[in-house]
Amino acid sequence: MEIGFFRHEMNLQGVFAAFEHEEDHEPFEVTLRGRPDEAEPPSEGTKFSGVILKAIVPADATPGVYRCRRLEAMTFGGRRVAFDPSTEQTWEKWHFLVREEPASPSSS
User: Fold this and answer.
1) Nearest of 1, 37, 39, 38 to residue 17 by alpha carbon
2) What is the per-residue pLDDT across 16-29, written as a single tens digit (0 to 9) for each?
3) Which of 29, 63, 73, 92 could pair with 100 as two cysteines, CB 3.0-4.6 Å apart?
4) What's the predicted TM-score (pTM) here?
Protein backbone atom coordinates (compact mmCIF):
# COMPACT_ATOMS: atom_id res chain seq x y z
CA MET A 1 0.00 0.00 0.00
CA GLU A 2 1.54 3.30 -1.05
CA ILE A 3 0.47 6.12 1.25
CA GLY A 4 2.02 8.92 -0.75
CA PHE A 5 3.95 11.86 0.59
CA PHE A 6 3.79 13.45 4.02
CA ARG A 7 5.63 16.21 5.89
CA HIS A 8 7.55 15.65 9.10
CA GLU A 9 10.36 17.14 11.15
CA MET A 10 11.59 14.00 12.92
CA ASN A 11 14.10 11.46 11.66
CA LEU A 12 11.81 8.52 10.96
CA GLN A 13 12.83 4.90 11.07
CA GLY A 14 9.45 3.45 10.06
CA VAL A 15 5.74 3.93 9.54
CA PHE A 16 3.11 1.50 10.86
CA ALA A 17 -0.56 1.14 9.94
CA ALA A 18 -2.65 -1.16 12.15
CA PHE A 19 -5.66 -2.76 10.46
CA GLU A 20 -8.38 -4.56 12.40
CA HIS A 21 -11.12 -6.89 11.20
CA GLU A 22 -14.24 -4.74 11.01
CA GLU A 23 -16.66 -7.38 12.37
CA ASP A 24 -14.51 -9.71 14.48
CA HIS A 25 -15.56 -9.77 18.12
CA GLU A 26 -12.07 -10.90 19.13
CA PRO A 27 -9.72 -8.22 17.80
CA PHE A 28 -7.37 -9.47 15.11
CA GLU A 29 -4.81 -7.00 13.86
CA VAL A 30 -2.58 -6.94 10.79
CA THR A 31 0.18 -4.32 10.86
CA LEU A 32 1.62 -2.98 7.64
CA ARG A 33 5.14 -1.54 7.90
CA GLY A 34 7.41 0.54 5.75
CA ARG A 35 10.56 2.65 5.78
CA PRO A 36 10.04 6.26 4.66
CA ASP A 37 12.16 7.60 1.81
CA GLU A 38 12.86 11.33 1.78
CA ALA A 39 11.63 12.66 -1.55
CA GLU A 40 13.62 15.89 -1.54
CA PRO A 41 16.18 17.64 0.67
CA PRO A 42 14.79 19.09 3.92
CA SER A 43 13.62 22.69 3.77
CA GLU A 44 13.75 24.74 6.98
CA GLY A 45 13.65 21.59 9.12
CA THR A 46 10.68 20.06 7.29
CA LYS A 47 11.14 16.81 5.39
CA PHE A 48 8.92 15.31 2.67
CA SER A 49 8.83 11.52 2.57
CA GLY A 50 6.93 8.79 0.82
CA VAL A 51 6.40 5.28 2.10
CA ILE A 52 5.12 1.95 0.87
CA LEU A 53 3.58 -0.23 3.58
CA LYS A 54 3.70 -4.02 3.33
CA ALA A 55 2.70 -7.04 5.38
CA ILE A 56 2.33 -10.77 5.03
CA VAL A 57 -1.19 -11.64 6.12
CA PRO A 58 -0.98 -14.45 8.70
CA ALA A 59 -2.53 -17.79 7.76
CA ASP A 60 -4.87 -17.57 10.77
CA ALA A 61 -6.30 -14.16 9.77
CA THR A 62 -10.08 -14.16 9.86
CA PRO A 63 -11.50 -13.65 6.34
CA GLY A 64 -13.25 -10.33 5.82
CA VAL A 65 -12.60 -6.61 5.55
CA TYR A 66 -9.81 -5.01 7.58
CA ARG A 67 -9.85 -1.26 8.22
CA CYS A 68 -7.03 1.04 9.28
CA ARG A 69 -7.38 1.98 12.96
CA ARG A 70 -3.98 3.59 13.69
CA LEU A 71 -1.22 5.23 11.69
CA GLU A 72 2.03 5.82 13.54
CA ALA A 73 5.66 6.61 12.88
CA MET A 74 8.72 5.37 14.76
CA THR A 75 11.60 7.77 15.20
CA PHE A 76 15.24 6.72 15.24
CA GLY A 77 15.14 7.74 18.90
CA GLY A 78 12.58 4.97 19.56
CA ARG A 79 9.47 7.14 20.00
CA ARG A 80 6.15 6.04 18.49
CA VAL A 81 4.27 9.08 17.23
CA ALA A 82 0.71 9.13 15.89
CA PHE A 83 0.10 10.95 12.63
CA ASP A 84 -1.61 14.33 12.98
CA PRO A 85 -5.36 13.91 13.70
CA SER A 86 -6.16 15.97 10.58
CA THR A 87 -4.89 13.04 8.45
CA GLU A 88 -7.42 10.60 9.94
CA GLN A 89 -10.03 11.48 7.31
CA THR A 90 -7.69 9.96 4.74
CA TRP A 91 -6.34 6.84 6.43
CA GLU A 92 -9.53 5.78 8.21
CA LYS A 93 -10.89 4.90 4.73
CA TRP A 94 -8.04 2.49 3.95
CA HIS A 95 -9.09 -1.14 3.91
CA PHE A 96 -8.28 -4.50 2.39
CA LEU A 97 -10.06 -7.83 2.02
CA VAL A 98 -8.82 -11.19 3.26
CA ARG A 99 -10.56 -13.93 1.34
CA GLU A 100 -11.18 -17.42 2.60
CA GLU A 101 -8.77 -19.91 1.12
CA PRO A 102 -10.43 -22.11 -1.53
CA ALA A 103 -11.13 -25.72 -0.58
CA SER A 104 -9.55 -27.02 -3.79
CA PRO A 105 -6.98 -25.74 -6.26
CA SER A 106 -8.39 -23.98 -9.30
CA SER A 107 -8.06 -25.64 -12.67
CA SER A 108 -6.91 -23.90 -15.82
Assistant:
1) 1
2) 999 999 887 777 89
3) 63
4) 0.82
